[in-house]
Automatic annotation (TrEMBL), chains A, B:
InterPro entries: NAD(P)-bd_dom_sf (IPR036291), P5C_Rdtase_cat_N (IPR028939), STEAP_metalloreductase (IPR051267)
PANTHER family: DUDULIN-RELATED (PTHR14239), REDUCTASE (PTHR14239:SF10)
Gene3D superfamilies: NAD(P)-binding Rossmann-like Domain
Keywords: Oxidoreductase
Native source species: Streptomyces actinomycinicus
Record carries keyword Oxidoreductase: yes
UniProt-recorded name of the protein: NAD(P)-binding domain-containing protein
Highest taxon in the source lineage: Bacteria
Statement: the UniProt record of this protein carries the keyword Nucleotide-binding: no
Amino acid sequence: MRYGVLGTGEVGRSLGGRLLELGHEVTLGSRSADNPVAVEWATAAAGRAHAGTFAQAAAAGEVVVNAVGGTVALDALRAAGAEHLDGKVLVDVSNPLLFEDGQPRLDPVESDSVGERIQRAFPHARVVKTLNTVNCQVMVKPGRVPGEHNVFVCGEDARAKEQVTELLVEFGWPAGRVLDLGGIRAARAVEMYLPLWLSMFGRFGSPDFNIEVRRAV
Amino acid sequence: MRYGVLGTGEVGRSLGGRLLELGHEVTLGSRSADNPVAVEWATAAAGRAHAGTFAQAAAAGEVVVNAVGGTVALDALRAAGAEHLDGKVLVDVSNPLLFEDGQPRLDPVESDSVGERIQRAFPHARVVKTLNTVNCQVMVKPGRVPGEHNVFVCGEDARAKEQVTELLVEFGWPAGRVLDLGGIRAARAVEMYLPLWLSMFGRFGSPDFNIEVRRAV
C-alpha cells in the first residue's frame, strides 16, 4: 500500500519507518519539499521511502496519515489539498496539545475535537481517529507494553475503520483489542484522555504504558 | 471509623451502604434533615446508619465523602460548613458532569477541576480525589470487574492519600493498583477521563468496566 504521512516529527518518522518495515511505500510530507529531516529519512530508508511537500505526500498516498500536532493539523491538511484527500482514508493520530505558560493545554477541548474539525473541513475524506492515546513508539510496536491492551478507533465510515483496524493489526495490535467508539464525535473522548496520559507519564517517567479495558462479561 | 457521606443519590447510598457493611458508622447528609431517601436508608440500615443535613453529616464524620455531583459540590460543602471540614480527610468522588441540549458536558474542564475548586474553597480540608473514574458499584466492589484494574488518587496531603488508600483496600482494591498521580491538580486529568468512560459505557451497555494500566518494567 502507498501511504502519505504528514509530519516529519517523531510521530511521523515512527509511523513512516514502521510502514516501510511492513513493506509499504511511504512519502513523508512536510511544509517544504527540501525539509532536511524528511530528505535524510528518505535517503537513509531508500527505495520505498520518499520525501515531499504535504501535497506531494497526500497525492502519493492511497491512505493519508495526519501525524502533525493537533493544533496545526488543519493548516497541514489545507496545504495537502482537499483534492488529494477526497475519498481516501485519513488517519488522524494527533492530540490538540499546546503549552501555555509552561502548562499543557488542549485546544480544542470538550465541545469540539481535532478529529471532528478535520472531518468537517474535509467532508469527502474518510477520517478515522486512532492511536492518539499512546506514545508513537507504542503506536507502531504495541508489544513494547506487556500483555494485551487497547487502542480506540472512531469515525463516520465503517469500511474506513475496518481498513484502519487491518493496519493496526499489521502494527501488532490484536484485532480484539481495537475498540470502536462509534462516530467521529468520540474523538473528543480520546483526545481528552491526554491529561491522564500525561499524568501517568509524569508518574512513571516512561511513555511505554497503555490501558487495558477490563469488563464483566 | 465515622464517615459523613454528602449526597443521597446512587453514589452516596452505594458508598454509605458499603461503609456500613465494613463496620463503619455513616451519616448520610442531604440538603434537609428529613430527606425521605436518607431517612428511609438510615431506618432500613439501622444502628450505625444515620440521616442528617450536610452539616450534621460533616460534623459527625471523622472522614467526609463528597458524593454529590461535581457541579453542586461547592454548594453542598458550603452548607456542610468549613468548621466541619477543617483538618479532616475530604474524599471527592465527583465528576463535573452536566447536560446541555441533551449532550454531556464538563464544567469546569481543563483549566480547573472540582477537586481543585474544593481544595481552594476549603484550604484546611485534606482533599483527596479518587474513585470518580468508575461507576459507583465498581467503586465499592471492584471485584465486579474481573482481574486487577486501577484506581487513582491525587491530593496535596500525603498522609490523607495513605488513609484513603487504606479505605480503598477495605473496599477491595489491591493496594498495588492504587495509582498516586500527585497533587490535586491531577484532578483535571481524572475528571477529563469521563468522556472516554461515557463512550465506553455507550459501547458496552454496562457500567461494569474499568481500565488496567499496563507498563513496561
